[in-house]
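Late entry, evening session. Most of the bench is empty. Finally got around to the prediction I had been postponing all week. Sequence below, unchanged from the version circulated by S.P.
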Amino acid sequence: MSIPGANISSDRRHFFMSSAQLEALEKKEEQEKDPVRQRLGDPLRAGGRILDFELCNNSTAVLALGSHIAKVADLKAKACTRSQTKHAGPVTAVAVLNSTYTIGRSRIALSASWDKTVRLWPVDNARRTLAILVGHSDLIKCLVVHPMLPIAYTGSADKTIMIWKLPALSEELDTDENHPLEIKPFKTIKGQHSGQILALCLDANAAEILYSAGSDASICAWNAQNGSILKLENNHFDSWHIPRGKHQTNITDIKATENSLWTASADNTAIGWDLETRTADMVLEHKSSVMAVLPIPQAGVVVTGTHGGVVYVWRTSGGSPEIIREIHAHTDDITCLKTAGRVFYSAGLDETLRVWDIMDVIKFSGGLEYIPAELAKLREQLHLGCGLEASVGGKNKASNQQQQKQSFSALTEEEERELAELMSDLDDI
């Protein structure tokens, strides 16, 4: 119930905040106004916090937004289309079925939400729901799809993983748009994880293995076709499992390459695992939670995104890991990193999706912080402008002080003494 005449404000300063929170907010707002940050990575502005994204091709992406919607983005125009899919809660994850599985000429996207459902819809008409996947009893946190088959995998706060087999022919989804198809899970995996499932990925070779991780800081492996737990070679009694220990808390992201597995964690680390021995090959230490990880083996690097918005590029091919580049573009947490050929994309809670040429970033010779030449020149001009402004301000201040001194000199000696005492008293208050 609203009180007549009461002021309603969305300014966060009008709510209780500690001095540290207020300082952080002011710093963030200052960063958001920085014209160099505004241009770094040629940002696409989504109009909502990006929790996940998936690339359809080099010109289209699907975005999962905290504002309860999934959007289609035109990467070349740097804009989102008007077409969108609505959920009853934040959209946490999105995926796109392979290009042979289409409705008409449109790719088919999936969006998962806190509303416990996954929706299937045509990328060319996001307002139309083709099917709804129903089965989880709590928030859905992650979603991946098989690269060749119409199979989806979801992880949830209900501590389960569900495997969904979609209709073998996409035409079976082409039903009355007012009555979308309802699909139940093919298999529910539970009991191995003791916490929320926060991250899923398929192996990079044949997509035969599904890896899962979550709030219990453990990693499990499953048969991607039937959901049975993966057994170790030459030992049918032991399962493929990495227990809590090396990671101390939430595993926020997981990615597989041909030879290794990489995980990101809120314990300030990203770890590269040997797939055969299940031991940590490499540990990347950070100063804050690692929200996303992206191995790019062909370039010999691993990219990490952190709480607070810094993107780090690590050289991992030479033995000991080394940070070779920092990208200070985002002004809030990085939520997702994806690669496509020579470029990689970063997205975050600052509502932007940014694109980077990995070779340009690696070969950059201007220092640890990556700022392309044209933006470095802009920053230099801004600093010069600030210096000039400070100089002018200093001259004005000196002039004012001189004027004050001249005005004081018009006073009698006794009046000047009284004024000095008064000013001294004010300084002590």
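Two things to note before I forget:
The chain has two domains: 24-371, 376-428.
The two ends are 43 Å apart (CA to CA).
Will write this up properly tomorrow.
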